[in-house]
Write a structure and sequence with these properties.
Layout (H helix, E strand, L loop, with lengths): L18 H7 L2 E5 L2 H15 L10 H4 L6 E5 L2 E11 L5 E9 L8 H15 L4 E7 L3 H9 L3 E5 L9 E7 L7
Parallel strand pairs: 4-5
Antiparallel strand pairs: 1-2, 2-3, 3-4, 5-7, 6-7
């Protein structure tokens, strides 16, 4: 099944990327997550993030919400993942829950490739916007989202009393008809 911009969701295919990102992506392949991918993510996430994070890779992100979860491989080696889902409220929203990039592949376009692929998938599913959150002070995440054109705001008590978060959103412009 081919989506807009040439991404085949049920198999492995290259996303039709901008020339700049295509050069950065090199031999990277983006595809839907499998159970063995998920198991591998749980094994490596603490090392990739530099601390305990495996609980954030909850199995529901494969078993119940895995239709939209992605991985990126280079030469059949998992180098990045995105766990996300679609919120069927109003407006319909694509939500990025957790992203991990192998430390040797950071700043090489893996995160951008994951976000662009997931965003296009969400648009194809009728989403009107994208959303993600991070902890206040996570400057790397904040800069990354701003570089992709996302807006942000700090929200007091977002994750409970005295648990401020930075909330990112990206609204979609209407696509031309025809």
């Amino acid at each position: 099944m081919l989506g807009v911009r040439g991404f085949r969701w049920r198999g492995v295919a290259r996303l039709a990327l901008s020339p700049q990102l295509r050069n950065a992506a090199g031999r990277m392949e983006t595809r839907k997550i499998t159970k063995s991918d998920f198991d591998h993510i749980v094994d490596v996430i603490d090392r990739w993030w530099g601390g305990p994070m495996a609980n954030f890779a909850h199995p529901m992100f494969f078993h119940e919400l895995g239709d939209n979860a992605l991985i990126v491989e280079e030469e059949r080696r998992l180098i990045g993942f995105l766990l996300g889902f679609v919120v069927f409220g109003s407006p319909k929203t694509g939500y990025v829950h957790l992203v991990g990039i192998h430390p040797d592949f950071r700043r090489k376009g893996v995160g951008r490739l994951l976000y662009e692929t997931f965003t296009e998938r969400c648009r194809d599913l009728g989403c009107e916007r994208m959303k993600a959150i991070t902890t206040a002070g996570n400057e790397g995440s904040i800069k990354f989202h701003h570089a992709l054109g996302w807006q942000s705001s700090e929200v007091e008590d977002y994750a409970g009393t005295n648990r401020r978060r930075v909330v990112f959103a990206k609204e979609f412009r209407s696509r031309p008809l025809g």
